[in-house]
Write a structure and sequence with these properties.
Radius of gyration: 12 Å
CATH architecture: 2-Layer Sandwich
Order of helices and strands: EHHEEEE
Strand content: 25-35%
Helix content: 10-25%
Largest sheet: 5 strands, mixed
CATH topology: YaeB-like fold
Oligomer: single chain
CATH superfamily: RelE-like
Structural class: alpha+beta
Number of strands: 5
Number of helices: 2
Shape: globular
Mean pLDDT: 91
Distance between the termini: 35 Å
Strand order of the largest sheet: 1-5-4-3-2
């Protein structure tokens, strides 16, 4: 099984800069685990979207899309749970 490639959008990188530095290693580790399994059992599909998923890392949510044909996981946002689903 070929592993997936992780692509970070600028918005996700910007979100990481605003997060408590002690939480960042846990978030990075969770995102890196998506390389082998982009749809783990704790991931949830977001309502109203065909390709958007989220994983929970403590109080933070990682919003991402999976392109199965291209084997790419694109990270869009890393936000606190109270702000994660706002447009």
């Amino acid at each position: 099984m070929r592993s997936y490639e992780i692509q970070w959008k600028h918005s996700a990188e910007r979100d990481l800069r605003n997060i408590d530095p002690q939480q960042i290693p846990r978030i990075i580790q969770a995102v890196e685990s998506l390389v082998n399994n982009p749809l783990p059992s704790q991931s949830r599909k977001l309502r109203g979207s065909e390709q958007d998923y989220r994983i929970r890392v403590g109080d933070y949510r990682v919003i991402y899309q999976v392109d199965i044909k291209a084997k790419v996981v694109t990270i869009y946002h890393v936000r606190h749970r109270r702000e994660a689903y706002r447009k």
